[in-house]
Design goal:
GO terms for molecular function: ATP binding; glutathione synthase activity; metal ion binding. With about 325 residues, the protein is an alpha+beta fold. About 25% of the residues lie in helices and about 30% in strands. The protein has three domains: about 5-130, Rossmann fold (3-Layer(aba) Sandwich); about 150-210, Dna Ligase, domain 1, CATH 3.30.1490; about 215-290, D-amino Acid Aminotransferase, Chain A, domain 1, CATH 3.30.470. Strands 1, 2, 3, 4, 7, 8, 9 and 10 form an eight-stranded mixed beta sheet that branches.
């Protein structure tokens, strides 16, 4: 019987088929003989206690590795079939791949997905886990693994933290891909204005950490599946920007510290049904735990000849990612 694999994604026209991990996972599912379906957060529905969606079947055109992190893809890169309503309990796997922010639309989608039986359908990642595991705040549960961190909406508190550490990095709690990230220096004459910007003049919290000199050499993305590290890449800043560019990468060895970080986080990730995660590490410090639309796998597969996307999809289809109990489900 042909397996159905459903991808909850942003509109297809917003995805880059040459780089996007969601596309790599779709290709891997198609190569395994599965039917690939695309749907969106607003297309998810609940009817009489069951989750369903209006989804479009996709047939992806072949792609091959190109220069660097990219894949060569034809135009058009997919052929769409006739949309149909799917009962998600009947799918082999559901990959939740919409980008942040985690707004009301996203939360509602995850609550609908809570109705999917994780013992029958692999949920990557579990919807309750996506709500529980804030990418920027989960590391705070492991303070010995992270640099000094402040989460605050109070401008005075933020300014005091900057004064203490001289140079800090500030980012939105729900930010991603480096968007909204600022470097704050204690001697900057625009500091007060920048603090107002990052806190929304005291209306939203920001995450602040000391600027780590090691970031000038880049950071490391550790790919974690079922709590175990399966590979890592070094990612570099570019063009004088201190932020990391994830299209400039190289293979990175897993250090003892990397393995220690993974081992410490593994029970938490497994408990929340986070089957796929990307840990961002600078020097010895854990910075972020990416659980929502984890990226970089397709790029690493192209650059390094790895099979990360195929590994994740293979585990989803062979039953390895099914829940052993109903712990991931939200009680009524």
């Amino acid at each position: 019987m042909t397996a159905d694999v459903v991808f909850v994604v942003d509109p297809l026209e917003r995805l880059d088929p040459a780089l996007d991990t969601s596309i790599g996972l779709m290709h891997a599912a198609q190569r395994r003989g599965a039917r690939v379906w695309a749907t969106g957060a607003l297309a998810l529905e609940a009817r009489d206690g069951r989750a369903r969606c209006l989804a479009t079947p996709l047939h992806l055109a072949p792609s091959v590795p190109d220069q660097g992190c990219r894949w060569t893809v034809p135009d058009p890169w997919f052929r769409a079939g006739t949309p149909a309503v799917l009962e998600l309990d009947e799918a082999a796997a559901v990959f939740v791949r919409t980008e942040p922010p985690l707004d009301d639309r996203f939360v509602t989608a995850t609550l609908v997905l809570d109705l999917v039986d994780p013992q029958r359908t692999a949920l990557v990642n579990a919807p309750a886990g996506l709500r529980a595991c804030s990418e920027h705040l989960l590391p705070l549960h492991f303070p010995d693994l992270t640099p000094a961190t402040l989460v605050s909406a109070d401008p005075a508190t933020v300014r005091a933290f900057v004064a203490e550490h001289r140079t800090v990095v500030a980012k939105p709690v729900d930010g991603f891909a480096g968007r909204g990230v600022l470097r704050l220096d204690h001697h900057d004459p625009n500091l007060a204005s920048l603090v107002e910007t990052v806190t929304g003049a005291g209306t939203r919290a920001a995450v602040l950490q000391p600027y780590l000199r090691e970031v000038t050499a880049g950071n490391k993305r550790v790919f974690v599946v079922e709590g175990e590290p399966v590979g890592a890449v070094h990612r570099f800043p570019t063009g004088g920007d201190f932020r990391i560019c994830d299209t400039r990468m190289a293979a990175a060895p897993l250090t003892d510290r990397d393995r220690e970080i993974c081992a410490r986080l593994a029970p938490t990730l497994r408990r929340h049904g986070v089957h796929l995660a990307g840990l961002d590490v600078i020097g010895p410090h854990l910075i972020e735990v990416n659980v929502t639309s984890v990226g970089g796998l397709r790029k690493a597969d192209a650059l390094l000849g790895w099979s990360l996307c195929a590994d994740v999809v293979g585990r989803a289809l062979d039953g390895s990612l099914l829940a052993p109990s109903l712990l991931e489900r939200t009680p009524a």
